[in-house]
Design goal:
The chain is mostly helical. It is built from five helices and no strands. The chain has a domain of 38 residues. Helix 4 packs antiparallel against helix 5. The chain starts with a helix and ends with a helix.
């Protein structure tokens, strides 16, 4: 049941972030019609465009798969409140979920 609730909350949260322009333009996670394939194609396209202009390219990758397991939850909650405008009820639910 918790997975169903988590999925519903995720949909609502992503919809809120999209409607308010709070998601980075090139973010592919949690967006319909975007995937790792979309990200790969963007990288390849950028590499080819740079090569056409004789520019040097460099790719640096960072694995953030466990970022929320090690991050400071208070900083996360403050950021969600101040930067993204999430209300008290949503933050209470997230606090309960991560604790």
């Amino acid at each position: 049941m918790s997975k169903v609730v988590k999925r519903l909350i995720c949909r609502q949260l992503v919809a809120y972030l999209q409607q308010n322009g709070l998601l980075p333009e090139l973010l592919t996670a949690y967006r319909c019609g975007h995937s790792t394939e979309t990200a790969d194609l963007k990288i390849i396209s950028d590499f080819l465009a740079a090569a056409d202009h004789g520019e040097v390219t460099l790719l640096s990758l960072l694995d953030l798969s466990a970022a929320f397991d090690t991050g400071d939850h208070h900083i996360l909650l403050d950021r969600l409140y101040y930067s993204f405008g999430l209300g008290d009820k949503v933050l209470s639910w997230i606090t309960s979920f991560i604790s």
